[in-house]
């Protein structure tokens, strides 16, 4: 058995609740360090760390609890950032590998894809390619599924045959994948899977504080994107409120008051549009509110033009009326002289 060249390895366990993160941590350390649950749980667990030794390698394992996927996207992201930052503090923002724990035999869901998106957004866009090892749990199910396979399909062959989003993840992490049977009592199997894991750790790029600092922009960008539904809801409510303020032509007995109201409303629309552009112009989700504000501005300008036209007509009528009044007065004066 080939031993790892490293004398020390720090690994972070990440993934959705129910995939077997804690059980995997226990298998790596060969002791019951982390509390396991039978399936998905809504309880908020703490980030935990423990240490063990395999051959001459000291192992530091940090278990990041999964986040309840029934929460809103911004809540999931916020809790994920909190958990990962706590984990990073436990290892001085340095680790050897990030273990992405997936469950063999389970469909790769949108929740799994979202979790990976969050990992990239928190730790940097290159973290999957450079630092991740995919750990597939329920290795005993894999063995059972392939007992009758005449081609003797290996685990890596199975990984290369996958399609869809999970294939993209395997390719992105350079197929650094290992199968774990956390229920096995066979010491040879338990040691072999740890050895395979440590061989893959040697192929990863160690994560550093500098890499985390460089990912600040990614974290800010993803934080904004996860808040998109709330931002859009607020924007739509504000636009509706602005539209309701448009006065009706003829509703005011004082024309100048109407003009002032429209002009002020036009300024308010421009200010709000500039605010959205300044904060979110680079984001796709803000395009529709900006278009709605452009349409609203056109509506207000149209009202102003109608007002201006009516004002011109009114002035012309006033001049005509004055002329008629002056003519009538002159006729009266003429009659009196006669």
From TrEMBL:
Domain named AIG1-type G: residues: 6-216
Alphabetical UniProt keywords: GTP-binding, Nucleotide-binding
Record bears the keyword Nucleotide-binding: yes
Coiled coil region boundaries: none
Short name of any one Pfam family annotated for the protein: AIG1
GO molecular function, one term: GTP binding
Entry superkingdom: Eukaryota
InterPro entries (UniProt xref): G_AIG1, GIMA/IAN/Toc, P-loop_NTPase
Homology family: Belongs to the TRAFAC class TrmE-Era-EngA-EngB-Septin-like GTPase superfamily. AIG1/Toc34/Toc159-like paraseptin GTPase family. IAN subfamily.
Record-linked PANTHER family: GTP-BINDING PROTEIN A, GTPASE, IMAP FAMILY MEMBER-RELATED
Protein name stated in the entry: GTPase IMAP family member
């Amino acid at each position: 058995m080939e031993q790892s060249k490293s004398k020390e390895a720090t690994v972070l366990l990440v993934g959705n609740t129910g995939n077997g993160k804690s059980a995997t941590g226990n298998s790596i350390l060969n002791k019951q360090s982390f509390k396991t649950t039978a399936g998905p749980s809504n309880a908020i667990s703490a980030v935990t760390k423990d240490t063990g030794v395999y051959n001459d390698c000291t192992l530091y394992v940090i278990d990041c609890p999964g986040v309840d996927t029934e929460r809103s996207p911004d809540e999931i992201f916020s809790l994920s950032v909190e958990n990962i930052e706590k984990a990073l503090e436990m290892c001085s923002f340095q680790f050897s590998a990030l273990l992405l724990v997936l469950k063999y035999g389970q469909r790769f869901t949108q929740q799994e894809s979202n979790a990976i998106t969050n990992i990239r957004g928190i730790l940097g866009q290159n973290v999957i390619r450079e630092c991740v090892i995919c750990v597939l749990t329920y290795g005993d199910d894999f063995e059972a599924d392939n007992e009758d396979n005449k081609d003797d399909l290996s685990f890596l062959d199975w990984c290369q045959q996958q399609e869809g989003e999970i294939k993209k993840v395997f390719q992105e992490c350079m197929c650094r994948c290992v199968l774990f049977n956390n229920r096995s009592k066979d010491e040879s199997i338990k040691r072999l899977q740890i050895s395979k894991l440590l061989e893959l750790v040697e192929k990863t790029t160690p994560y550093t504080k500098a890499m985390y600092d460089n990912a600040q922009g990614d974290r800010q960008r993803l934080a904004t994107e996860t808040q998109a539904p709330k931002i859009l809801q607020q924007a739509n409510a504000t636009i509706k409120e602005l539209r309701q303020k448009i006065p009706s032509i003829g509703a005011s007995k004082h024309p100048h008051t109407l003009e002032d109201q429209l002009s002020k409303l036009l300024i308010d629309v421009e200010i709000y549009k500039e605010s959205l552009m300044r904060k979110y112009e680079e984001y796709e989700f803000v395009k529709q509110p900006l278009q709605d504000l452009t349409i609203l501005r056109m509506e207000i300008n149209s009202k102003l033009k109608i007002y201006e036209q009516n004002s011109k007509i009114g002035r012309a009528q006033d001049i005509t009326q004055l002329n008629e009044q002056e003519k009538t007065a002159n006729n009266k004066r003429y009659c009196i002289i006669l």
